[in-house]
Structure formats: structure tokens, C-alpha cells
Design goal:
The protein is of the alpha/beta class and 309 residues long. It folds into 2 domains: 3-143, Rossmann fold (3-Layer(aba) Sandwich); 145-305, L-2-Hydroxyisocaproate Dehydrogenase, Chain A, domain 2 (Alpha-Beta Complex). The chain has 10 helices and 14 strands. The strands form 4 sheets. It has a 6-stranded parallel β-sheet, sandwiched between helices. The chain has a 3-stranded antiparallel β-sheet with strand order 7-10-11, with helices on one face. The protein has a 3-stranded antiparallel β-sheet with strand order 12-13-14. Helix 1 (11-22) runs parallel beside helix 2, helix 4 packs parallel to helix 5 and helix 6 (145-160) packs across helix 7 (199-210). The longest helix has 20 residues, at 286-305. It binds 3-acetylpyridine adenine dinucleotide. 3-acetylpyridine adenine dinucleotide (A3D) is lined by residues 7-13, 32-35, 38, 77-82, 95, 98, 101-102, 118-120, 122, 143-144, 147, 175, 223-226, 229.
């Protein structure tokens, strides 16, 4: 029996719950929100896809944190989404309060769960969730790199007009303007894209990936992306409860890895039912290392601006 609770039944949370049920990645999916009726209505809508999509998972909604008891994994999507003209930093104060309160409830009602953070700004919220929960560091992690890497892969496929199956792309670092797409580690049929495309084209793909979230916000105007973010969470859930093979870029608390300490950023890890099983240290060039360090420094600055320490 696998139980997954999704806190926040908005666009990302609702879409996650639907995909988790459809793929039968959990026996029970609980949707929880502070808005009365929202998780219940969303869950009922999702359950009514079951006769059409033929899944057996049970999705239900609640406004009571006590219902997360027994969860193996809690996905935190509670918070405000970025609106046009709003930077990730604008979200910081408000979402910090929400994530601290939600994490406090998780440690109280589901102390043996793992926490997967989605709320932005992702790396700071993952750090807060880790610190507030008091959980071991391998039990608290965030989704950012999987989405950024999927976006990079999509842009590469579009540019080279090749099938997506041939592409593996990798983005590490903070989930934001200072993310670190890694062309050397992004391959088409095993060949690094740096061998297939001129440097200016690679740079354009990197820049488009860095701005991919904002590009969608500029179209939608009243919200941000949610289909690909939800699919990215589900990819991580598959890695946790599924075969556990391969590595994914995941936001984790670093304690000396990559020369970084007391900060959360995205790096490749192996996931298993016990959470983060191993942090993989890539052999980065001095330039790549310097971008990663800048990325982490930006996250630390935001953490410090919250005045926690
Ligand atoms: P939205 O559709 O507004 O849903 C958020 C939900 O959270 C709403 O239904 C709120 O009622 C609910 N909520 C607020 N406070 C609480 C609380 N204390 N307890 C329970 N529920 C609460 O937003 P969304 O689903 O589009 O986005 C959710 C979050 O994910 C935002 O912070 C986004 O910025 C973030 N996000 C991150 C990524 C990453 O790649 C990291 C991608 C997309 C969205």
C-alpha cells in the first residue's frame, strides 16, 4: 500500500493527483487544501475519470491535516504561483510562511514520510522544509531540475528535429534564472550537443531554458505552468517507488558535496523508496562550478533574507 498526500489542490496539485492515480503509482492519493470544497471537488472529478481510464487508485480530498497520517510521501504544492511581473523573490515571504506551517503539520501527522517540495522559490522552500521538519536530509527534496531538464530536452529536440527518445538533457543548480543547463552532459543518441550544434545555438537553447517558466507565464498571464511541473513530480515518484534506476536532478540539502554547505540546490541523485540514496558528483569545469556556486550563493542570500538564523 502506497499513500501519497498532495498539499495544495491547485493546478499543479490537482494535475499531480490525476497523473499519480492514472499511472497507479499509489493506492491512495489524498488532496489537501485550505480552501473548503476545493480538494473534495477536484478529487471527485479525478475519480470520475477512473471508469474511463481504468485505474484502481483512490483519490480523496480533505481540509484536515490529520488525514495525511500514514503517508509514504507528501508532495507540497501549497502556496502562491508566480503572476506576470512577479519575480520568484516576490513570492519568498508569503510562501515561506505557508511552507513552514505545512511542514510543521507533516512532521506532526506523517513523521515517517518523505517530503517532495514544489512550492517556489523551490530551493529556498526545500531548505525551509528540511529545517522545519527535522527530518533526515535524504527524506526532504525538491522538484526543479527534472522540469528544467525536460524543457531543455524539448528545445533541443525542436532545434535538431530529432525524436525525444534520443535525447537526455541535464540542468542542475537553483531552479531560477541562475540554473545551470549542462550542454556537455546533454546528449542526442549519446553525442553531446556541443558536438552537434554551434556554440551560439547551444547558448540560445540554454537561455531559452533559463527563461522557460517566464515564457509560459507571459502567455498565460494569470498563472504559471502546471502540466510539465506535475509530470516532473510524477517522474520523481516513479523513480522513488518504481525501478529506482538512473539518476535525476533533484534539489537536496548539500553538506560539502560540490564544495557547498548548508544550502539546497539541484544536483543529480539516485532516488529510492528511502528518498535520496546517493548524491552524484559530476566532474564540472571551473566555469560550470562557478555558475553552480553563484546559483547556490543566490539561494543562501534568500535564506538569509528570511532572517531564520
Ligand atoms: P495554485 O493553482 O494557486 O495552487 C496552490 C494551492 O495552494 C491553492 O489551491 C491554495 O489554496 C493552496 N494553499 C495555500 N496555502 C495553503 C496551505 N497553508 N495549506 C494547504 N493549501 C494551501 O498554484 P499552482 O498549483 O500553479 O502552483 C503551486 C506552487 O508550485 C507555486 O508556489 C508555484 O510557484 C509552484 N510551482 C513550482 C514549479 C517548479 O518547477 C518548482 C513549477 C510550477 C509551480
Amino acid at each position: 500500500m502506497v499513500k501519497i498526500s498532495v498539499i495544495g489542490s491547485g493546478r499543479v496539485g490537482g494535475s499531480c493527483a490525476h497523473l499519480l492515480a492514472q499511472r497507479e503509482l499509489a493506492d491512495e492519493v489524498l488532496l489537501l487544501d485550505v480552501v473548503e470544497g476545493l480538494p473534495q471537488g477536484t478529487a471527485l472529478d479525478i475519480m470520475q475519470t477512473a471508469p474511463l481510464e481504468d485505474f484502481r487508485a483512490r483519490v480523496y480530498g480533505s481540509n484536515e491535516y490529520g488525514d495525511i497520517e500514514g503517508s509514504d510521501l507528501v508532495v507540497v504544492t501549497a502556496g502562491l504561483a508566480r503572476k506576470p511581473g512577479m519575480s520568484r523573490r516576490d513570492l519568498l515571504q508569503k510562501n515561506a510562511q505557508i511552507v513552514q506551517s505545512v511542514t510543521g503539520k507533516i512532521s506532526r501527522y506523517a513523521p515517517r514520510s518523505k517530503i517532495l517540495v514544489v512550492t517556489n522559490p523551490l530551493d529556498v522552500m526545500t531548505y525551509l522544509a528540511f529545517k522545519t521538519s527535522g527530518f533526515e536530509r535524504n527524506h526532504v527534496f525538491g522538484m526543479g531540475g527534472v522540469l528544467d531538464s525536460a524543457r531543455f530536452a524539448y528545445f533541443i529536440a525542436e532545434k535538431l528535429e530529432v525524436s525525444l527518445e534520443e535525447i537526455s538533457a541535464l540542468v542542475i543548480g537553483a531552479h531560477g534564472d541562475r540554473m545551470l543547463p549542462l550542454p556537455r552532459f546533454s546528449r542526442v543518441s549519446g553525442e553531446p550537443i556541443t558536438e552537434l550544434l554551434p556554440p551560439d545555438v547551444v547558448e540560445n537553447l540554454v537561455e531559452r531554458t533559463r527563461g522557460a517558466g517566464a515564457e509560459i507565464v507571459s502567455y498565460l498571464k494569470t498563472g504559471s505552468a502546471f502540466y510539465a511541473p506535475a509530470a516532473s513530480v510524477v517522474r520523481m515518484v516513479e523513480a522513488i517507488f518504481g525501478d529506482g534506476k538512473g539518476s535525476l536532478p533533484v534539489c537536496v540539502y548539500l553538506d560539502g558535496e560540490y564544495g557547498l554547505k548548508d544550502v539546497c540546490v539541484g544536483v543529480p541523485v539516485k532516488l529510492s523508496p528511502d528518498g535520496v540514496e546517493e548524491i552524484i558528483e559530476l566532474d564540472l569545469t571551473p566555469d560550470e562550478m562557478s555558475i553552480l556556486r553563484d546559483s547556490a550563493a543566490e539561494v543562501r542570500k534568500s535564506i538569509e533574507s528570511l532572517g531564520l538564523e
